[in-house]
User: Fold these one by one.
Assistant:
Number 1:
Amino acid sequence: MSLQVRTMADMMASGETPEILFWVGCAGSFDDRAKKITKALVKILNHCKVNFAVLGAEESCTGDPAKRAGNEFTFQMQALMNIELLNGYEIKKIVTACPHCFNTLKNEYPGLGGTYEVIHHTQLIQDLINTGKLALADNGTFKGKKITFHDPCYLGRANDVYEAPRALIEKLDAALVEMKRCKTNGLCCGAGGAQMFKEAEKGNKEINIERTEDALETAAGIIATGCPFCNTMMTDGIKHFEKEEDVKVLDIAELIANAADL
Amino acid sequence: MQQILFGVLTLLSFGFFAFNLRKIAQNIHLGQAINRSDNKAERWRTMLLVALGQKKMFSRPIPALLHLALYAAFVITQIELIEILVDGLSGSHRFFQDSLGAFYTFMISFIEVLSVLAFIGTIAFLARRNLLKLPRLNMKELAGWPTQDANLILIMEIVLISFIFTMNGADEELQSYAGNSNGFAISSWLGPILFDGKSTHTLQTLEQIGWWGHIIMVFGFMNYLPYSKHLHIFMAFPNTYYSKLEPKGQFTNMQSVTNEVKLMLDPNADPYAAAPTDAAPARFGAKDVTDLTWKNLMDAYSCTECGRCTSVCPANTTGKLLSPRKIMMDTRDRMVELGDYKRKNGPDAEDGKSLLGSYITEEELWACTSCNACVQECPVNIDPLSIIIDLRRFLVMEESKVPSELTGMLTNIENNGAPWQFAATERMNWANED
């Protein structure tokens, strides 16, 4: 089944208002791996008949990496342009699969005139399941599998969202195993603070290798994440240890789409 | 004579302490304004839980319990200090003993038990530092003075507790000669063991040594604090009260930048108009402690260099130069240096040094992943990340010193609204791909 995606401009032209805006984010739009997460989430939204829209070509970087890199000018240029667009469309509620977009939209836009209800996609999916709109098929995909969850810093510590992703993993017929550093003590994947876009400073180890070791220690067959950047870092870590055959790195949206036979 | 001596000593101690407190207040005021007067109920709650209740200490139970023993002993002993002050000034002996009776015995016993626990805690802390060589207590930023400072405090605590038991123990032995007993939990059996058969004169001397030694140590300790990392015992309270209450991921939006960006985006703005009255600050971001907020500077005074932040820092644990604890230690050292310089040479005097450059290097700043682990971990809610980001802001916006790969990322955002080189028109491609 092809994906049903409409843009805000399209909806506006036909006088319709979506319930929620899906903020796809740059990774979700352009990164080949992250695009799969985007599509998994859209499958879920389509399946649950959620009335949503995307900004499409009108979407632009939230400015998060610029702000973390210390360039407040570029951040605020992006923020003010996005806010003008979002306010123009009278957006009330936003969902995103990127914790960096989530944090910036939720916490840093209100001070610049953009106040929205912003949720992470794991929270939306949890809500869809809790309200009975999404049922997981009993297809045994994850039966007997061990899944560990890597907390994205900008979802966990930055915004205290620890439970929604875990509640979803527990809904799968699988065992959730925690890494020794998890939740408030979770170790960063190494991508935050604009590190994604540069080489690491001189050290004796890459941070994603350290974190992948934590994950491998749990003997989980799946490392679940909720962030496209964490996904990249953990995937690279797994490649480093040549464990691609045994360990998969998947977003929660992908796990759920899979379990719901979508 | 002794009372006069005691009175003078007390006055000098409190006077010198007040003098140093004033310097600390002045140094904190070197920082920029930030409003932390909102949400008073939440602030009191945070202070009660985090400072008084030591909530965050308990993520590591063993040091938390050892620390609790020292902390409780310290707080409760303050009650006994009231009596010492009264006795010292009036020449009385155990002023409250008769009037309080059994409660007095209970109080002193309680203090004695806590003191024993504190003694054990102190020994354990010395062992952790010097014998077990706990990594976070033996890092390079602690070489020299910080290590001596830490050991000195612990030794002072041992001496202090020893004086308490010398005093109470000698007193107990004296009482037993008259067929009495103070009945205190520890000294009633420890006294006879330590001082069995000593002459009345020796015991009286020992008690005096204990009493004077104790109070001199207390005064000495109090006046040592302003020079020491141990100042956290006071600063923990205001520092947690003035904690950042917003989500940890929320960074400040710089108002000065907003003004300029709005002007840039406004098609009707007159580019030649006179600068608005709330003109842009002298500098974007922070180069020196005077560019940081007073809360950043209060954070620096609250740091007791425990290194929990550094032990959880992903950059530090993978061998990078960054240590959040060093950021706080550098901030304090620079603040004290600049404060002293300005007191000597006038408020506008500049010494040609700065926090960024003279103390903190660019390499340290660029190692940060902004993951907030250090902020989460700090038992007194210090926020090293906000200093790191403000220093980065200066590097990027004032000096254009950006790692080259980041220049590319920033240019891409400015040109095509994404950190990578993709056109906006390609944003929906995923919807039509397999």
Number 2:
Amino acid sequence: MTDLTRLSLADARKGLKDKSFTALELTDAYIGAIEAANPSLNAYVATTPEQARDMARASDTRLSQGQGGALEGIPLGIKDLFATKGVHTQAASHILDGFKPEYESTVTANLWRDGAVMLGKLNMDEFAMGSSNETSYYGPVISPFRAEGSNANLVPGGSSGGSAAAVAAWLCAGATATDTGGSIRQPAAFTGTVGIKPTYGRCSRWGTVAFASSLDQAGPIARTVEDAAILMTSMSGFDAKDSTSVDIPVPDFAAAVERGVKGLTIGVPKEYRMDGMPAEIEKLWAEGLEWLKAEGATVKDISLPHTKYALPAYYIVAPAEASSNLARYDGVKYGLRVSGKDITDMYELTRAKGFGREVKRRIMIGTYVLSAGYFDAYYVKAQKVRTLIKKDFEDAFNAGVDAILTPATPSAAFGIGDEALASDPVAMYLNDIFTVTVNMAGLPGIAVPAGKDGQGLPLGLQLIGKPFDEETLFAAARVIEKSAGGDFAPKQWW
Amino acid sequence: MSVDAATVKRIGRLARIRIEEEEVAAYQTELNAILGFVEQLGEVDVAGVEAMTSVTPMTLRRREDVVSDGNYPEKIVGNAPLTEDNFFMVPKVVE
């Protein structure tokens, strides 16, 4: 039998329906692949093989009766940020030591409702704060990709680095991920996978460990645009338990994938043409536009004048919200406790030991910008800038633009332990320069593999859409996927 | 705006994160790098601009003011480091 892990999610679903193999066989193939690869890649922080086999057997029963949901028998990896009942849920942090929730997040509950099988929990940057998956308490994820002729370990991107690496390395058929400033799209671009951050409000945030609540959105990472669309449909939907969940129907996103781009207007924002942008990124972007034009789209130059202010505004808004959200980790209700001479001492020692350096840094920044005397100068100002960023996009869409094409990241994946990035926090933050605007404006954005750099590492393009028009993004991303025609799979070394 | 060593310690206390004396200088450098980076927002004219409160045009939904959940204290304290009779246990706070 061919290696079942190499099948796309869509093909695996077809194979299950046609009874070419069983859900248990498919699940066992993934469990074996994880056991072999995880010591090298560190993509999973916890595996649940027995639970996976039980879920697969239940799927096989339903499939044999001609029943089953949209994801029946499909093995998935779940980012450690999603609460999974009775299973390791720690946001890859020490402070949630031993936490096993009594409840299930809405997004994962939706996946199990549709028949998916859980393989385990995926590594990530601690509390989703990072762009390289190096801030995890469980150690960095190693990318399945290496530069040609090199054995040096590269980062898979972050914060959903475990999700991206596991999908690219055939350790799950698809994965859940989350995106607060680029945490789905940047790792997808680094690993030759497809990742979509839907419109804010499309997926329920209930049961997902909060980082910055006004920016956080869940979404899938998958090996093809079609697979991402299938997962997106199951993950989405109104949830009364999230007050910002939007009560509108969920389209069958997969039905939009082959819709094409004929007649669409694609915006090209001049502000994304950064000084010092590598020529290969420039070339990739131009190629992407040519592919869309060749399929009948019109390309239009646009201006999003406040682009350069999105990242600084983000580094006020996101830490401010994080400092509030992470106040709950105090050694009382769950996770780690370090004893102290009194309760304040216990709080301070618990939080000093339980949080990693990047998380502490962001809590401190957030605390500072929200403190008396600085609130207006920092937080209120940033929220005003955010209004302007959103208006830039609204103006472009009102002028007839259907979607916007940009590079996904300023470079391909970099090395583990990059010294220049480690010594300057702002240098690492610049990884999200093309993605963070989308979170600030609450829009949907998809990253799709489009080419490779000079060392054979994947590069991605990003499409940004109108609110709740993920369908156009899937259709346009599919055109890029088809036109790029490349094989974005890693060469297996692990 | 930049922070001095005393401010770093004060932020640590407000955030309930113990900052050891030997960590202060490194935090000060890092926080000032980030604050220096966000400084550029000073260039943006925001006169007459409303601060964003909701990224999607919506009013927060309200639900009926009724008890809709609960009655499982053992689950609520199930993950706590120290409990007794379904209460969270903490160091003495009242003399």
Number 3:
Amino acid sequence: MASSLTIKGLDAAYGSVRVLEDIALEVRAGETVALLGTNGNGKSTLMKCVMGMLRPVAGSIVAEIDGTRHELNGLATEEIVELGVALVPEGRRLFPKLTVEENLYLGAYRRTARAQLKRNLAHCFDAFPRLAERRRQLAGDMSGGEQQMLALGRALMTAPRILLIDEPSVGLAPLLVRRTIDKIKELQEQYALTVLMAEQNFTQAIRIADRGYVIVHGKIAFAGETAEELNNNELIREFYLGA
Amino acid sequence: MEVSLDLLLNAVVSGVLLGGFYAAVSVGMAISFGMLDIGNIAHPAFIILGSFTAYILNERCGVDPIVAGIIVLPFFFLLGAGIYQVYHLAFERRGETAFIGLAFFFGILFIAEVGLILVFGVDYRFVDAPYIGPSLHLGFVDLPLRMLVPCLVSLVLIGLLQLFISRTFIGRAIHAVSQDAGALQLMGVRPSRVKLYAFSLSIATAALAGSCLIIIQPVEPSLGRDYIGRVFAVVVMGGMGSLSGMLIAAMALGIVESITATFYGPSWSPAVAFGFLLLTLAFRPAGIMGR
């Protein structure tokens, strides 16, 4: 069944500092959409608003999960997760003093996820064999790449229908960035997820994205309907390709 | 003074028994302070409350003190839930926890103490149970049942809690909540619920710890203060948030105190025990089992 995300007229601020202005964004069922922009343009803030970690000043955030519409603006984070929306947060935010396995088990806390725990854990270890090898290791002792795998795996353990990923490439070596991005595509297809991915690394993100939005100073500056369109866009050239 | 082997062995054995009891007294703080970052210095007062409820049930109804501890356990759980709600609404939700929270629990400590004094007076109270007098004798080692029973109760209690924390969903969430409460929300968990549950559990342990205490020694309302230092020492030495580390630390403290008391006199034992704490922290700042 289809799950999608529709954001309209979203304004957000930290105190009196306006961070997002009149954002309109849509992730249709089964799409991978890239949210592109350099640091400090509001990508993470947008993610936080969707997850109820920051209350928007105005606007609506509607998630349609398996055919049922839910207004997310006003719900608590844990209620949004309960509906089937998951976030791989900026900085990963693992539980450093818990083992890999304990981190994954915590992902499966919500009722729906508990029922699928065994299967999802097997999938997770399948997708990331490294996590299976290190299952008894403390999350805090792992390398950046391994931590990113664990953060992804933990989010998948919540059995989401809509997955938000905030900057998966940050702090990773170029080869690992490539692999992580490929892995996201693979998981999106395998689980039939609807994915919104915030990323600074334009060239990598655009490889797997169906569409993309460019966010500049808290506003959607350009919405590209295809990867081609984004590739040939003036703004992108200006911000990323240095031309 | 000559160190004879059987004296040493007896001191070690009674230290282990004493340590087991210290673990029962400390386990509640290992959860509230070690895992939740709630500096509940009133915990020993709840233990004294547990001693007095065991005393009443024993005196009035002839109930065995350990059974009494188990009977009042759910009430202590509810009491803990009530206290956490007040703490959460008044302080934690506003982010004012460090000093104001400490003052709150200090207040609770005094209220509990004065309340007990008003009801029971300042006299020492004790309980009756068949295992309070006799001892087992294994060769030249004495095992007073008065010490052995609390130690066993403590081990069972800690074993069950350890299983609960490592094997259940809510247990793992308890372990995670002080590391990153926001990330826990992203797992669909409400942190304040987890803390409510865990804090209530920590107060519930005071019911059994109180039973153990009044089996070991007569109890008066302000006795809890004697234990505050030891409890902090055990929790910190064990490595915040680790029940197994806490148990090892409690045993170590018990053994060191018991050996000191045997060979140098009881008045030296607190000094030696805290010297031991300082040494441990000098070499392992995160505690024995600190992660």
